[in-house]
Structures are given as structure tokens and as C-alpha cells.
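Q: Here's a chain of 327 amino acids. Please give me its 3D structure as C-alpha cells.
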Amino acid sequence: MAHLSFPFRPLRRVLLAGLFTAAAGLAHAQANSPIRILVGFPPGGGTDAIARTLADKLKDQLGAPVVVDNRAGAGGQIAAQALKAAAPDGHTFFLSHDHSISILPLVTKNPGFDPAVDFVPVAGFATFANALAMSGGTPARSVPEYVRFVQQNGGKDTIGVPAPASIPEFLVGMVGRKYNLDLQAAPYRGSAPMMADMLGNQIKAGVGSIPDFIENHKAGKVRIVAVIGDRRQAVLPDVPTFAELGLAGLEDLPYYGIFAPAGTPPAVVERFNQALARVVAMPEVRDHLTAMGLTVAYQPQAAFANRVRTYTQSWDRIIKASGFQPK
């Protein structure tokens, strides 16, 4: 019988070859197909503007068209469900802040997704502060002035928030309890419609992220009067934190990051991660995001995954302490 011999290659070489083949295949596929960045809020809002800023630069880094796909509604829940349903092939990502990833699963009985199971954190790129802002038709120019204004008008007011059961809604409740006011949150389908009603003086105040308010604040159309965080924001040096005003527990800043569907190959995740790192390091991108009210703070995958986990745990304690019951 003839002796049969088989070629042998070390396992490490085989694995590396497979990794490089996967990366090369991804690059080829992405060069011929658009990459979608899902956004859970409508065009015109802060999150949409951030996504479009990054998409414009990512297309050059990834060598493929990058399009923003707005799936607005339910505080980002629709977009998150779309990410879960997407093929893990490197063509679909989700740009989200903390609400869709950390808060929705805490306040919704059946959100239709489990971030820990259905998503892969790719990278974080910024933090931001939520803020309380007054509409142009409201005479108050500070939190104490707003408190007096509400007291003089029956002790009640309605404050707009971008989504139901969101951190802005919990913040409305905390402000109301702090100053013994009857403040009710009016949830909108995103910051853009909330801002439209603020500009039209349909509501006297709103709570949202600094990127939601900053352009109209600079134009004098709304007035940001307080921000969360353990220090004042560089873009708003004259605006006090809630901690300065005696409202503790709002020092941990929310995050912005990118997520992929579970099962996305590590080579795909790493390629997008590196592309994002290069984009947010660009001076023009950093300057633009900073001017929008973000603090650019790139975090690679492992660090960002830990950040998401600890932030979620922190707000889980706050929400349970508030007595809120998931719906």
C-alpha cells in the first residue's frame, strides 16, 4: 500500500490566513455595497447631525459609501430592533447614545432586543450632558428664576423631553421633587419636534442633550440654564451644573457609541473601530463635535463595553429607587 502524506501548516498560520481572508472579503464587499448607520431619531436632531458628520468621513476611511438610515420612533427602539434583525456582515451599524442601549431595557418590559445578547459594542466616541433649557417666550434665565416663574403660575408646568421613560423624563421628576413643583414630562418622538414646539413657544421648557439645544442657544432662541455632570461644560462655561444647584446624583455623563449586530466577525468590528478612531482624531471633526456640545472621548471596544455595563448598572439603581415600573 502506498504511504499517504498530507501537507501540514501550523494552526496559528491557518487561523491568521483565515482572519486576513475575512478582512479582505469584508473590504471587497464593503467597497461594492453601502454601509448603513442606523439612527433612532428623525433628521434634524442632535443624534442625526452627529451621525452625518461621522458618516461623511467614514466613507473615505472604509472605502465605501456610508449612509445614515433614520429609523425614528420609540426612543430608538425601532432602530435597535432593526440592528438586531440585520445580517452581521459589516454593512449595518447603529449609532446610539445611552437611552436606546442602557435605559430602554430598564424601563420597557419587552423592548424586542437585549443589548448584552443581540449587539456587539464597537467603540465609544463621546460623552455629553443633558440640559434644562427655557423657550424664548419664558422669562426665566436661570433655574431659580424658573422655579419662581412656575410658583407664580400655579406651581405646575409641562416640560418637553425627547422620549418617554428617558433620563430627561427622570430629570424632570427630580427637579420637581427638589423644588416642590408639579412638573410633568411631555414626551416627543425625538428632539427635533420638541425643539420645534420650544421655538414656537408651545412649551415653556425642555430637557435634552446639549447637542439638541446648542445652536438655538447660541442664536438666543432658547436658553440653557443647567447641565448634568461633575463640572461645567467647556462649550457652556457660564451655565451651572445641577450639582452646583444642590441636585446630586447626576454626575455620570451619558455616552455616544457605535454598535454592530451580534455575530459580526471580530475582523469587521476591528476595522470599523480603527476607522472611527481615525475619524474622531481629525481636528475638524473634533472641533465640530465639540462645538455641538460633545466631549470627544474615544474608547476602543473593551473599554467601551465596560463603560456601557457600569453606566447601565448605575441607572438601574436610580430607576428602581424612583419607584418607576417598566411598562
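Q: Can you summarize the key feature?
A: Residues 11-32 form the longest helix (22 residues).
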